[in-house]
Amino acid sequence: MTMSCKAQKDARPNIIVILADDLGYSDLSCYGSEIQTPNLDNLAAQGIRFNQFYNCSRSCPTRASLLTGLYQHQAGIGRMTFNQNLPGYRGQLSDNAVTIAEVLKENGYQTGMIGKWHVAETPLQPDQREWLAHQVYHPDFADRKYYPTSRGFEDYYGVIYGVVNYFDPFSLVNGEEPIREVPEDYYITTALSDSAISYVNRYAKSDKPFFMYLSYTAPHWPLHALPEDIAKYKDTYKVGWDAIREKRYERMKELGIFGDADDFLSPRQFNDSWEENPHQEWDAHAMAVHAAMIDRMDQGIGELVAALKANGEYENTLILFLSDNGCSSENCQNYPPGENDRPDLTRDGREIIYPKNKEVLPGPETTFASIGAAWANVANTPFRFWKAREYEGGVCTPMIAHWPKGIEQPKGAITSEMGHVMDIMATCIDLAGAGYPTTYQGKTIIPLEGKSLNPIFKTGTREGHDYIGFEHFNEKAFVGNDGWKIVQKAGKNQKWELYNLNNDRTELRNVAGQYPEKLAEMKDKYGAWAKRCMVLPAP
Question: Beta 317-323 vs 110-116: how paired, if at all?
Answer without folding.
Answer: unpaired
